[in-house]
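Our preliminary data section would be incomplete without showing what the modeling component actually yields. Below, a chain of 159 amino acids is followed by its predicted structure, encoded as tokens that our downstream tools consume directly.
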Amino acid sequence: MNEIFEILEDNARTTPEQIATMVDISASKVKSIIKKAEEDKTILKYKTIINWAKLGQEEILALIEVKVTPQRDVGFDAIAERICHFPQVFSAYLVSGAYDLAILIKGKNMREIAGFVTEKLAPLEKVQSTTTHFLLKRYKEDGELLEPTEENKRLPLSL
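Predicted structure:
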């Protein structure tokens, strides 16, 4: 059954009929598995990856390292959940190392991101410190190259 999810993760537009052929079960069984997975939130969302730069709509992305004070009985979960509710937060992860949370946010410009960090994120009671890294160029998103690489046009070296 995991094969069905791997196929959908690779291409959400694959039809149940196509999946059924690929995994050798009936299309109705595939539809049933997908429906159940949507209902129990195993499948959270179907996503399209768009290279916005090609459409002239640049977004600013920033990775924010956040050091927090964990809370008794809930650890990092309560503060992480609070941070996740901000609309600017695109992704959030608990990480090992020098900081506790890695937060990916989107903004229209650097000023908007700076405002989010200084006015909303840093003042939170359990936040000890933040470090913001602006992402300068995206090469790959969700496993997809945003700009296909050119073939090597150099002639092979012959001896």
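The domain at 52-138 is CATH 3.30.70.920 (Alpha-Beta Plaits). The mean pLDDT is 90. Preliminary results of this kind motivate Aim 1 of the renewal.
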